[in-house]
Structures are given as C-alpha cells and as structure tokens.
Specification:
Function: Involved in cadaverine and putrescine tolerance in stationary phase. May facilitate the efflux of both cadaverine and putrescine from the cytoplasm, reducing potentially toxic levels under certain stress conditions.
GO molecular function: flavin adenine dinucleotide binding
Pfam families: CBS, CNNM, CorC_HlyC
Low-confidence stretches: 338-343, 430-435
Radius of gyration: 35 Å
Strand content: 5-15%
Domain CNNM transmembrane: 1-199
Largest sheet: 5 strands, antiparallel
Organism: Paenacidovorax monticola
Mean pLDDT: 82
Strand order of the largest sheet: 8-9-12-11-10
C-alpha cells in the first residue's frame, strides 16, 4: 500500500470517527424542550430523536462499536503507513534500532494527534454548539447503521442491560424538570441577555409563592381601615376620605369580630344617589373570606380562585385578626413595583452602602436587596421587624442595632412597639457577623 493510499484511508477513518463523535454528543446534549418544539413544527426527525433519548441503548451501542473499530483500524493503518518513512528518514542520522523506535513513537503521536483533533475535539465542539440540529441531521444514517449491525447491536445491548440490572443502575434518563432547573435556565438567560433582569426576577418570584406565607404580603392589623357595624353616615364618609381603599372589613364591636366587608364602589354608588350610608343593610355587607396565617401565597391564590374573591382577612391560631390580603398584594410579590401600591416604597436606597427599610418589609425582599442567602433563625419570623426582635430577644427601641452578614441593622423609629424604620448600612469589613448590640 502506497503512502497516498494509506493517507486516504486514514482520512476516511478520521471522518468516520468524527461522524460518530458528532452523533454521540448531539444526542446526549439535545434539549427535549427544543426537540419538542421542532417536532411540533413538523420535523419528523426531531420526534425520532426524542424516542431515541427515551431508549438510547441500540444507538450508543452502534456508536461505541464504530468508534472502537475505527480507532483500531486507524492505529494499524497509520503505524504501517508512516513508520517506514519515518524510520528511513531518521536512519540517516541515527542508529537503525534508535531510528526504528523513534519512528514508531513519531507515527503513534502523529496519528493520535490527528484523531484527537479532527475525530474528537472538533466534531464534539460542533455537536455541542447546535446539538438539536446535528442530532436530526445524523438520525437517518444512524438508523441505517443500527439496521446493518443489528446482530452485533443485539448482543452488546443485552450484555449491557444485564450488567446494569446486576449492578442495580438506572437505564432510563431522568428528564424531569424541577423548579431549580427552570430558575437556573432563567438566570443563565438573564446573564446571556436573552431575558431582562426584571423578567427573570418575576419568574423567580412566581416560584416563591409556594414558600412565602400570606403574612409576608398582608397589610398588618394596625394598618387595617375598617368600619363598625353601627358606624353612622358621617363617620363612614370621614373614614373613606381619610383612608381611601377599595374594600373595608365590617366588624361587630371590634376588629376581631368581622362580619363581612363592604366594597367602596357600592358606597360611592349610594353617595351619588344621595342615599344614606348604613352598614346595617344586609345587601351592602358581603360575606368575608377568612384564611389562616400559615397559608402560602399560592394557597391563598387558589382560595381566591375558588370563591371568586380578591380580598381576605387573615387570622392566627387564636382566631385573632392579624391582617388582610388582596389579590393585588399577592401579585405585587410577583410583579414587584409593576403593580405595586402607590404609597411609599418599603425599601429606599439612600446611597451605595445604606438602605432605609420599613419594619414590615418581608424578609425575602430584604435578602434580595442586600444580596444575602439567609439570616439566622429564619423560621421564626416573616419580616425585618421580626428578625430584629428575634436577634435582640426583646422589643427593640430606637438606636438598637444588630450586626450580621456584613450589615448593620439599626432601629430608627418605633411607634407603639412597632418598628417603623430601620437603617441598614454596609459595614467596613463585609462578611463579619457580630452579636446584637443595644
């Protein structure tokens, strides 16, 4: 066999090995969501690739048989083609034994380098760049190979399956997509510029609905605007003017005895018709949705959907009112300031290293703003005020502070034992955690 014939055969073997490399990496790296999209658009090859991903045994058996056969043939042909010429060239300057040894080593290195570069690295880089496109391109030719090598495929596939069963290893790929997978994909999309940062945050907030309790989005008890059942007309009008909301709870005697709620639209309609406002009118007071304070936001959304309401009163285990929540409150946790209320923001950034935060701000929002993973004893509180109470082990007073995670949390204002404002400042030595300091 002449040198040109040997080199031609080596090129064919490299091309065959490269083909098997592309076929292997493209099937393994193909995304099922993208393949399903291609199949829905009418590409029958994508449907076949999806089926092979479910049962890839025969496919990979052909690949391994082909790759190993090509590698062995490449070694045999390459050594026989290049060694004599390298031996003859080196024999001009070296002893025959040394020239023969170095010729063999040189032939081995050249052939191995060619296969690594052109039959492995380059094809796999191409397959990783566009795995779905390459997978559908090689599908038909791989099906022909599977048919041609059916007996060999059958033998090795059965032997492999027997080994898997003997070792108790799984033979099916787990393609379940978890919330963590989706969040990782959206974060990667945001870093790549495919998703806007705000869009990625909205998606992350949606998945938080199952973990955040309703207390993190509610209006607390001391901020609830409500009516008593026997409030006269002038009191109702004055409260609407002072605290304009769309919905008001109606109570009997005190806030812990809610009998229903009244819609501001119904009140306005009566005002426009010059009718007196009286909450003793049963047609004006609607039935109230009551939910426990340990429900998650996702569960509250489901309750809203079932009863076709968008307003609920939240009670604790002692049947005391702790707050109210609306559909807009829940959606504000998802959409952020896109649908947030028109009142003052809960978190205001003062400068590069300090924030002014309302005490009732949900702790998840505080963590996100400060880029912290968690705060200590996280299971014991829902808000920033709760964090300070747990850390101080008492009701905080003005100027009380807590140092944690490289930040100083200082109480600025307390109103009737309720923490109104907290100043959060970045410490000079970030990451140092210090105990609470009165």
């Amino acid at each position: 066999m002449t040198l040109s014939q040997s080199l031609f055969i080596i090129c064919l073997l490299i091309a065959a090995s490269g083909y098997f490399s592309v076929a292997e990496i493209s099937l393994a790296a193909s995304r099922r969501l993208r393949l399903r999209q291609m199949a829905d658009e009418g590409d029958a090859r994508a449907e076949r690739v999806l089926q092979l991903q479910e049962q890839p045994g025969d496919y990979f058996t052909v690949l391994q048989v082909g790759q190993n056969a090509v590698a062995i043939l490449g070694g045999i042909v390459g050594e026989g083609a290049l060694s004599p010429f390298l031996d003859a060239a080196l024999a001009l300057w070296l002893p025959p034994a040394t020239a023969q040894t170095l010729g063999f080593v040189g032939s081995f290195l050249v052939i191995t380098s060619l296969f690594i570069l052109f039959a492995d690295l380059l094809p796999k880089r191409l397959g990783m760049a566009e795995p779905e496109q390459w997978a559908v391109r090689v599908m038909r030719s791989m099906q022909v190979c599977i048919t041609l090598f059916k007996p060999i495929v059958w033998f090795y596939s059965r032997a492999t399956e027997a080994m898997f069963k003997l070792l108790g290893l799984p033979t099916m790929r787990d393609d379940r997509i978890t919330p963590e997978d989706i969040l990782a994909m959206t974060e990667a999309g945001a870093r790549a510029g495919v998703l806007a940062a705000r869009e990625q945050q909205v998606i992350a907030n949606v998945f938080e609905l199952d973990s955040r309790t309703v207390a993190s989005a509610m209006t607390p008890r001391d901020r609830i605007a409500f009516f008593l059942r026997d409030d006269p007309d002038d009191v109702i009008r004055a409260r609407i003017a002072a605290e304009p909301f769309s919905t008001y709870p109606v109570c009997e005697g005190d806030i812990d005895h809610v009998v229903g709620y009244v819609d501001a639209k119904d009140l306005f309609q009566r005002v426009l018709n010059n009718q007196a406002l009286s909450l003793t009118d049963e047609s004006l007071v609607r039935k109230m949705l009551i939910v426990p304070d340990r429900l998650t936001l996702a569960e509250v959304l489901e309750q809203f959907r079932q009863v076709h309401e968008d307003f609920a009163v939240i009670v604790n285990e002692y049947s005391l009112i702790v707050g109210v929540v609306t559909l807009n409150d829940v959606m504000s946790t998802v959409m952020g300031d896109l649908v947030g209320p028109a009142d003052e923001e809960q978190i205001v950034r003062r400068d590069e290293n300090s924030w002014l935060i309302d005490g009732v701000t949900p702790i998840e929002d505080v963590l996100r703003t400060l880029n912290l993973d968690e705060l200590p004893h996280a299971e014991e509180y829902e808000t920033l005020a709760g964090f300070l109470m747990v850390m101080l082990r008492r009701v905080p007073r003005r100027t009380d502070s807590v140092n944690w995670g490289g930040y100083k949390f200082e109480v600025l204002d307390v109103d009737s034992y309720r923490i109104d404002q907290v100043m959060v400042s970045r410490l000079a030595e970030a990451g140092a955690a210090a105990p609470a300091q009165p």
